[in-house]
Design goal:
Elements lengths: L1 H11 L17 H8 L1 H15 L9 H20 L9 H23 L1 H4 L1 H6 L6 H27 L12 H25 L2 H15 L7 H10 L4 H8 L2 H13 L12 H26 L3 H4 L1
C-alpha cells in the first residue's frame, strides 16, 4: 500500500528538463537555488565523507588532531631545530603551526574536490543531481577538519601566549575567504577535468606539495626577500612570489595568530594585495564554473 502511494505521488510531480547549463527549467535562483534545495543531501554527503575517512578506526576523529600534530613536530624538529629554520623567527612553533593549518585546509579542499566526481560515479550515473554538490561536499568535509585543527591552534597560541592583539586577529577572515575562493575555483575546475583525464588527480597532488614549499610556512617572507637581494635578482621576482594567493593567505593568517611578527615581516599593503587577489579569484571561480557546466554533460558516459 505504501509503495503504491509513493508511485502515485511521483506520478503527480511535474516533469522538469535540464538545459545546456545544467539547470532545471523549473528551478528558482539558478544553480545556487538548486543546491540550496538539496542542502540536506549536501549535509548527508559531508557526513558520509567524514565517516568514511576513519571508518573502523579505533581512534576515529582523533586522527584529525594526531596527523597534523605529527606533521608539525616533524617540521618543527627537523627544519626548525636541526636545520635552523627557527632562527630569526620568534615563537616559531605557532608560526609553523598556523601556516600548516591553513595550507592543510587548502590542500584538503582542492585534492578532495578533484576526485569527488569519480568517487561518486554511482550517483552521477543513476540520478540527476547538480554535479557541483560533490566538490562542495568534499570542501565541506575539509572545512570540518579545518575547524578542529583551528581549535588546537587557538589553544596552543593561548597557552604559549603567542596571540597578537585582538584587532590583529581579524586578519583571519580575509585569509580564510581568499583560500575558500581559490579552493572552490580550483576544486570545480579540476574535478571536471579529472573525469576526462585521470592523471589530473596525481598531478594535483604534486602541485599542492610544491605549493606548500612555495609559501612562507616553514620559512619567513623576509628570508625570501633577503635571498633575492643577496643574488641581485629583479624586484619583480619578490612581487611575483608575494602575489601567490596562498602566500598572501598564509601571511594574513600569521598576522591573526602569530604575535611575534613585526611590520617588517610582511609586504606593504597586504590587505590591498589580498583584495586584488580575491577579485581575480572570483573571476577564476566564474570561469571554472563555466568550464564545469560545459563538461558535466558527459560525466556519466566518461565514468
Amino acid at each position: 500500500m505504501q509503495t503504491s502511494d509513493r508511485f502515485e505521488r511521483l506520478a503527480a510531480l511535474p516533469f522538469s528538463t535540464v538545459d545546456s547549463r545544467g539547470l532545471r527549467s523549473n528551478t528558482r535562483g539558478g544553480k545556487i537555488g538548486e543546491i540550496v534545495e538539496r542542502r540536506e543531501l549536501l549535509n548527508l554527503l559531508i557526513r558520509r565523507d567524514l565517516q568514511a575517512r576513519y571508518r573502523d578506526s579505533f581512534l576515529g576523529f582523533l586522527w584529525t588532531v594526531i596527523r597534523p600534530l605529527i606533521q608539525f613536530l616533524m617540521y618543527f624538529i627537523v627544519l626548525g631545530q636541526f636545520l635552523g629554520a627557527a632562527k630569526g623567527i620568534p615563537e616559531f612553533a605557532i608560526y609553523l603551526f598556523s601556516g600548516l593549518t591553513l595550507y592543510t585546509f587548502f590542500n584538503d579542499m582542492v585534492y578532495g574536490a578533484t576526485g569527488s566526481i569519480i568517487l561518486n560515479g554511482g550517483l552521477v550515473k543513476k540520478i540527476y543531481l547538480p554535479r557541483e554538490i560533490f566538490p562542495l561536499a568534499s570542501i565541506g568535509g575539509a572545512g570540518f577538519m579545518f575547524v578542529v585543527q583551528l581549535a588546537v591552534l587557538l589553544v596552543a597560541a593561548v597557552i604559549l601566549q603567542a596571540l597578537p592583539a585582538p584587532a590583529q586577529m581579524l586578519w583571519f577572515f580575509p585569509s580564510v575567504l581568499l583560500i575558500l575562493v581559490y579552493g572552490l575555483a580550483l576544486g570545480l575546475l579540476l574535478s571536471a577535468m579529472n573525469v576526462y583525464l585521470r592523471d589530473i588527480q596525481y598531478l594535483t597532488d604534486v602541485v599542492l606539495m610544491l605549493a606548500m614549499w612555495g609559501s612562507p610556512i616553514v620559512y619567513s617572507w623576509t628570508m625570501v626577500q633577503s635571498v633575492i637581494e643577496q643574488f641581485n635578482l629583479p624586484s619583480w621576482v619578490l612581487e611575483v612570489y608575494t602575489a601567490n594567493p596562498l602566500t598572501l593567505a598564509v601571511l594574513g593568517f600569521h598576522k591573526a595568530f602569530w604575535g611575534g611578527g613585526t611590520p617588517a615581516d610582511y609586504p606593504p599593503d597586504l590587505l590591498l594585495r589580498m583584495s586584488i587577489a580575491g577579485i581575480i579569484g572570483l573571476v577564476l571561480l566564474w570561469i571554472s564554473h563555466r568550464v564545469f557546466v560545459r563538461l558535466q554533460g558527459n560525466f556519466a558516459q566518461e565514468i
